[in-house]
């Protein structure tokens, strides 16, 4: 019997954790903003291909599904309320004046040494919803800022 020498793959034994990440806003689409990077939750990293059903004449066992276009969910960011942050000022200005200045956002998943293991770049983002959590004198909770962004597309980056 022949013995094959197969090189061992260097696979990370520990899968990445979902609580160590970074969010970077690029002001004007180019320059990274060092402020407003800390968020407690990021959601909406999703894409879907819309399809059209086509029923072929004489075929009753299945329906063809033809691809149309890719659609994306909104990117939702949550953090503790930060009074007077540049990002909050930009959101407030956009919501007050309807003057939209799209920018790019990079979301990076980090390992235990804060080195990116995966990243997603969101192109031409702009705010579509902004909310503050309820103010409730009977609870002992932080005020949470929730920011929702639409974007033209996102790209998974190989790291």
Q: Your description of this structure?
A:
The chain is mainly beta and 159 residues long. It has one domain (21-157): Roll (Pnp Oxidase, Chain A). The protein contains one helix and ten strands, in the order E-E-E-E-E-E-H-E-E-E-E. The chain has one helix at residues 86-97; strands spanning 21-27, 31-32, 41-43, 47-54, 64-72, 75-80, 103-110, 116-132, 144-150, 153-157. Strands 1, 2, 3, 6, 7, 8, 9 and 10 form an eight-stranded antiparallel sheet that branches. A two-stranded antiparallel sheet has the order 4-5. It starts with 20 loop residues before the first strand and ends with a strand.
Please write out the topology.
Blueprint: E1 21-27, E2 31-32, E3 41-43, E4 47-54, E5 64-72, E6 75-80, H1 86-97, E7 103-110, E8 116-132, E9 144-150, E10 153-157
Antiparallel strand pairs: 1-2, 1-7, 3-6, 4-5, 6-9, 7-8, 8-9, 8-10
Characteristic key phrases:
159 residues, mainly beta, Pnp Oxidase, Chain A, 8-stranded antiparallel beta sheet, two-stranded antiparallel sheet, 8% helix, 45% strand
Helix content: under 10%
CATH class: Mainly Beta
Biggest sheet statistics: 8 strands, antiparallel
Domain tally: 1
Average pLDDT: 86
Radius of gyration: 22 Å
Proportion of β residues?
over 45%
Weakly predicted, low-confidence segments: none
The arrangement of helices and strands along the chain is EEEEEEHEEEE
Which fold name is given in CATH as the topology?
Pnp Oxidase, Chain A
What shape does the CA trace take?
extended
Beginning-to-end CA distance, first to last residue: 40 Å
Structural classification: mainly beta
CATH architecture: Roll
Number of helical segments?
1
Counted beta strands: 10
């Amino acid at each position: 019997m022949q013995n094959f020498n197969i090189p061992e793959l260097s696979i990370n034994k520990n899968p990445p954790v979902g609580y160590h990440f970074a969010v970077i806003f690029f002001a004007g689409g180019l320059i990274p903003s060092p402020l407003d990077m800390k968020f407690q939750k990021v959601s909406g990293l999703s894409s879907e291909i819309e399809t059209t059903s086509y029923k072929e004449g004489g075929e009753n066992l299945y329906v063809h599904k033809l691809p149309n276009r890719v659609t994306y969910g909104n990117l939702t960011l949550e953090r503790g309320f930060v009074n007077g942050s540049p990002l909050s000022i930009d959101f407030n200005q956009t919501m007050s004046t309807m003057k939209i200045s799209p920018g790019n956002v990079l979301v990076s998943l980090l390992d235990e040494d804060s080195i990116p293991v995966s990243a997603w770049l969101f192109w031409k983002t702009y705010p579509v919803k902004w909310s503050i959590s309820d103010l409730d004198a009977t609870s002992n909770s932080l005020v949470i800022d929730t920011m929702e962004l639409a974007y033209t597309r996102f790209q998974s980056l190989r790291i």
